[in-house]
Amino acid sequence: MPAYPHLLSALDLGFTTLKNRVIMGSMHTGLEEERGGVDKLVAFYRARAEGGVGLIITGGIAPSVRGRLAPNAAQLSFCWQLARHRKLTTAVHEAGSKIALQILHAGRYAFHPFAEAPSAGKSPISRFSASAMSERRIRRCIADFADTASLAKQAGYDGVEIMGSEGYLINQFLCSRTNKRTDAWGGSAANRHRLALDIVRAVRARAGQNFIIIFRLSMLDLVEQGSSLEEVIALGQALEQAGVTLINTGIGWHEAHIPTIATCVPRGAFSWITERIKQQLTIPVVATNRINTPEVAEQILASGQADLICMARPFLADARFVAKAAAGMPERINTCIACNQACLDRVFNSKRASCLVNPFACYETELTVTPAKHAKKLAVVGAGPAGLAFACTAAERGHTVTLFEQSGVIGGQFNYARRIPGKSEFTETLRYFTHRLQQTGVTLRLNTRAEVPMLADFDEVILATGVRPRWPKLEGIQHPSVVSYIQILSGEVMPGRNMAIIGAGGIGVDLAHFLVAEPEPSLNDWLQEWGIDRQYRQPGGLMPAHTPEPGRQVWLLQRKPQEPGRGQGKTTGWIHKAGLRHHGVHLWGGVTYTRIDDQGLHIERNGTAECLPVDQVVICAGQEPEQSLNAALEQTGKPVHVIGGAHVAAELDAERAIRQGTALALRI
């Protein structure tokens, strides 16, 4: 019996069979619009198909100019566009998988002046106002979806996914929040459901019966005036009758003030709503959102909550996720940590997506591992993210690598990051590197402080010694109440009851969370904290959020005049700020630090001097490169390479460190 019998079992759809229950969900990579991007996209999809995925869904493709997310966004409406798509489908089919095209109309989420929606208005996430669609435009839109589906079939796609969730056009028609129409396309639930059903019928009529139609159904809108549970069920049943093959789960609108895929979201946090809808349908239903290990996926399927599992970012982290699970080697999976840093944050800034823990993602044609022409004996000093990435990749190429680490564990700053509530996924990255070090044959020397004499026999030395905290010049900085963030996160010093944090960068924000939030809340506690009603008593599934009693008083301070928390990740920064406010953290900007004494931390703010009566002051005022070995090694004349935090410490960046270590290993 396979290790994951439900996950790896085939699914017979009648006219075709999926070889397992794993769907790679839709992800826009930025390659869709990049010059020469089609060949890179082919390599990206081929790698995932070769890695064992049963069905791949492409990034969202617009059915019309008005439906594009941005002026240059990908669209499939003309025969001359088929050639590039045939490259994708051929590559996936040759690798033994199936592929569906996602058809996405942005509606009022469009970032261009031709945006259209059921009713005129502007969304909170776009600066452009959408115009209300006329009856003629609605009819044209239905035909556009059908045309795109027909072209997709001609291009060799096995099916399409119709995007009906996340607040895009179809979802906008479904909800009274954005549908204020008084004609046959608005008002009653039946009228609001009409566009979705007419699109499905039109697609089925054009594409024929032997063609997969997936509908991504918004099962939980998480916005005011969203759909009710009864409306979601009724639409799901109507979609089934209209000819849909699979129902995929959609959770939340992009404008919702609730996290749905970030690290802080518990694994499988929304499988309960998938189960509830599945009970009312007979066609297969797909679970999604924060499913990142084969164990979680198998449990959801085995418990009957869903028939298939849809994962997107886990296939950025590891193209061979399914193959490793099937081989009984889940410990070798490079697990998605749901940070959004290199994927969604990049895409929303019009950059190519990749992955913090896997820099090869979307760079398959540019970052390639080839045998080293001349095998070298390499010393790596420091087993943080940069050092680990370099050591494993260099050893994989055939170099003899010894990795020195002065502490008793690998991981560097990751060992502090994984203690932050909502960031325990970093533990998975360290598990992955532990096994990869063994797999690639790296010699690991823990509890060893590398000195110049012991590095003499190596051909080259790679310094990945990381960072050390920067201490500001401040009267009273030597006061007993002053500690570093490392002392708190390592457990060397117990936190006080009233605390001030000097520095509100990423580490300061993380430390504030560590001081006030539950380390690992239960699913029910997390749902209550964010105001998600598991009983679904109100449209949209919202309820008043539970406000906890603060366990300690915390001030998060910075010199910059704006409120702390800005400058964090585009898709996660708001989550951090909301969480800190929820737990009563004081977020103060424009602070001048005067001195520290027995009374507390003396500051000036808004022209007024005051003293914060804290019993602890934590320094998070940035980092400095740890370069104590540099000068001594340079005097030996030995080639030395500096990477990671030891190279640039500003705003410690694990993505940059892993990418830099990998890139050096590929060319050394």
Summary, kept brief:
The protein has 668 residues and is of the alpha/beta class. It contains 21 helices and 28 strands.
Q: N- to C-terminal separation? A: 44 Å
CATH topology of the largest domain: TIM Barrel
Spatially, the strands of the biggest sheet line up as: 3-4-5-9-10-11-12-13
Radius of gyration: 26 Å
The CATH class of the largest domain is Alpha Beta
The tally of structural domains comes to: 3
Kindly estimate the percentage of residues that lie in beta strands according to DSSP: 15-25%
CATH architecture of the largest domain: Alpha-Beta Barrel
Report the CATH superfamily of the largest domain.
Answer: Aldolase class I
By DSSP, the count of extended strands is 28
Structural class: alpha/beta
Q: What are the segments in which pLDDT stays under 50 over at least 5 consecutive residues?
A: none
